[in-house]
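Design request, tokens follow.
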């Protein structure tokens, strides 16, 4: 007695596995060809289980790719989203590994973009940025590498210069050094930045 049958699924341009009991699931054309399936083929429970697992892997990967096409994600938050979609851990781990290997998912790229965007608008010190990255669950190694790359002396001087401009514009009556400390700049970063612009630039 067969467990399920392969039928066409015209809406998605693929196929379905239609069990005698339970819910059907989609089979892509690639999966159909890989397993040498045929329309109206009867399959046993073992093959049905393999097809279901492979279909889940494809679906999870495609869902992850769709999320990443819209915006950068940390590994942590992508896993959260895929988990909410109901995929099991091993399927998610496989998709995340593949997406990472292909370069679609990158905590390092996320961290770089986050720092660059933040520093263009409201520049802050390294420790403050490190905390923001930690709050977003960026992997530690990726966060440290991005911070090292984007907090050279040249970068620090540019950040402090922007912060000074912000201070002059938005807080003309406040002490500049106090504001820089409030925005998370360390003593070293403040000194490095002020040396570049010169004391005569202070309000």
């Amino acid at each position: 007695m067969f467990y399920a049958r392969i039928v066409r699924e015209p809406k998605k341009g693929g196929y379905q596995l239609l069990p005698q009991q339970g819910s059907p699931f989609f089979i892509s054309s690639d999966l159909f060809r890989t397993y040498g399936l045929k329309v109206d083929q009867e399959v046993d429970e073992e093959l049905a289980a393999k097809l279901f697992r492979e279909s889940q892997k494809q679906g999870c990967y495609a869902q992850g790719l769709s999320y990443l096409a819209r915006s950068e994600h940390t590994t942590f938050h992508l896993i959260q989203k895929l988990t909410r979609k109901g995929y099991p851990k091993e399927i998610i781990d496989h998709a995340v590994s593949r997406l990472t290997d292909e370069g679609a998912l990158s905590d390092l790229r996320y961290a770089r973009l986050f720092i660059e965007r933040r520093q263009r608008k409201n520049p802050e010190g390294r420790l403050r940025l490190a905390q923001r990255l930690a709050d977003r669950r960026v992997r530690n190694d990726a966060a440290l590498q991005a911070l090292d790359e984007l907090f050279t002396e040249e970068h620090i001087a540019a950040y402090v210069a922007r912060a000074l401009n912000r201070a002059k514009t938005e807080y003309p009556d406040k002490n500049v050094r106090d504001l820089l400390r409030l925005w998370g700049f360390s003593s070293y970063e403040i000194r490095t930045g002020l040396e570049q612009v010169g004391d005569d630039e202070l309000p």
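Comment from the thread starter after seeing the answer: thanks! The longest strand covers residues 4-9.
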